[in-house]
Amino acid sequence: MSTVFKVEDLSVEFRTSRGTVRAVDNLSFSVGASETVAIVGESGSGKSTAALACLRLIANPPGRIASGRILLEGRDILALDDAGLRAVRGRQVAMIFQDPMMALNPVFTIERQVGEVLRLHLGLDRRAAAAEVVELLRLVGVPAPEERARQYPHNLSGGMRQRVMIAMALACRPKLLIADEPTTALDVTVQAQVLDLIQSLKERFGMAVLLITHDLGVVAETAHRVIVMYAGRKVEEGSTQEIFKDPRHPYTRGLLEAAQWEEGDGNLLREIPGTVPSPFDMPRGCSFAPRCARAIAHCRKEAPELRELASRRPVACFVAHGERG
Amino acid sequence: MSRARAFWRRYRNNRTAVGGAVVLVAVVLLAIAGPWAYSVDPFDMVGRPAELPSGEHLFGTDVAGRDMLAGILHGGRVSLLIGVMASLAASVFGLAMGAVAGFYGGRIDDLIMRTTEFFLTIPSFVLAVVLVAIFSPTVANITMAIAVVSWPSVARLARAEFIAQRDRDYVLGCRAIGMPDWEIITLQILPNALPPLIVVSSLMVATAILTESGLSFLGLGDPNQISWGYMIGVARTVLRTSWWMAAIPGVMILITVLAINLVGEGLNDALNPRLRTR
Prior knowledge:
The complex is a heterodimer.
Chain A lengths: L2 E14 L2 E14 L3 E5 L6 H8 L8 E10 L2 E2 L5 H7 L4 E4 L13 H13 L3 H14 L5 H5 L8 H13 L5 E5 L7 H18 L2 E6 L2 H7 L2 E6 L2 E7 H6 L4 H10 L37 H5 L5 E2 L5 E2 L10
Parallel strand pairs in A: 3-8, 3-9, 6-7, 7-8
Antiparallel strand pairs in A: 1-2, 1-4, 4-5, 9-10, 11-12
Chain B lengths: L1 H11 L2 H23 L30 H37 L1 H16 L2 H11 L4 H28 L2 H8 L4 H37 L10 H8 L7 H29 L7
């Protein structure tokens, strides 16, 4: 499988009145053609920041990509000038967002908004774009597309709006689709439909998909590979099967246990105690140690590096590396 | 066009605003068509000075024996023209400044905001007097002077609107599809930010008319163009003996400014999304 998208040592910093904080710290990953890679983590783990950084969409100031390379088919996105960057955005790499209500401009019709992508990248005029928009809406399963195209975002349901967003993202047949929590704002019944749609379109066009989510159910259904992030760092990576069957990092285990609560334990929710530490107040050593039941003395002194286990899976945990307290 | 109809439906709910619109249209028509229908030169001496309103001279004559009705009709043209043009210039410039400041933030924002503060700390009427006194008092210069003292408030409002809009997801979405900044500002954010700005601009026409009247009253009006403020200025010396000479243009200013304010309020009702009920 050829690598379409590769991120190397990406760090994102934010300047605040209380000093500079690192929201993403030395993150590396790659996505192959037709592959779905999921980045999972709690709120505040840096996963959305990482996704936005992939298209240089971090607001600057206060944000800044401090280091790293973002390679799209070998070309570094961070080295592009403004025009080059605009040519990549929406054309080669497309993005869909969490809340499809907010991501559409309330004052324009669907036709006009989806048409913008075609106008910007394929140079279509408004009439040609309008015809293509109807085709795109049909493709993503919007019923009565001619009619819907002339409506405004507030006329559409949440699921419909997310389909419109997907239509917009796919308009130029991008090589990579970044989906930032694409189903979080939707009803449970609609979530599955939208995921199926992304899945089937991915297969049809051979796109790579980078899926950002906190929902392990979504991961299990769609992803080939999983990257677990915690406090801005990758703590574990593996195939979906490996992660679900044999999680090595205590944080990954905690996430899985929290997700499977209904099946045993007399319906007791097994949660991970505490919350992600504030970036202003990062613990010395492993950032997960204060919440970790298996932490040893070493964990509180030094941050563990990502190291490949015997199974060639990278994990950042001293205990998983075989140390004993 | 259903949007225009919806707009009219909301505007119509405000009865006084409809009344204001009717009066305003009447004043504008009078200013446009009046001088053409009543072809007396407002600077011609047509009778004895300070004649009372009569059948011959409907609004009487002023201190120099000039026809007051001709003055009101011609003066309306100048007053409205200056009011509208000054408001337009101030709105366009203020909007551009505020949009850039709000959208980009950072240093450019600081620079523009400090500039507006500089203007806002100086009493605007005094600044307008100084500007007109420095440059010659022509209609164009008076318009520019009023625009110069008016744009900062538009800029600040536009900035606030753009700040409120710039972090919305749809703006991020536009960036993510590779839309250039200027298109995001003009085609995407502007339509969302426009309603309160339209209201402020319409109210600014009223303020500009008042400022122009004030300047003319002080003798800083264009000496070759009659305006309502100029007429009041001329009548100042005979205020106790010939009160109507100042009262007639004064009432015209009052009616026009009131009508514009009512229209502005109606626009606010019709355009403000927070008052909108679906």
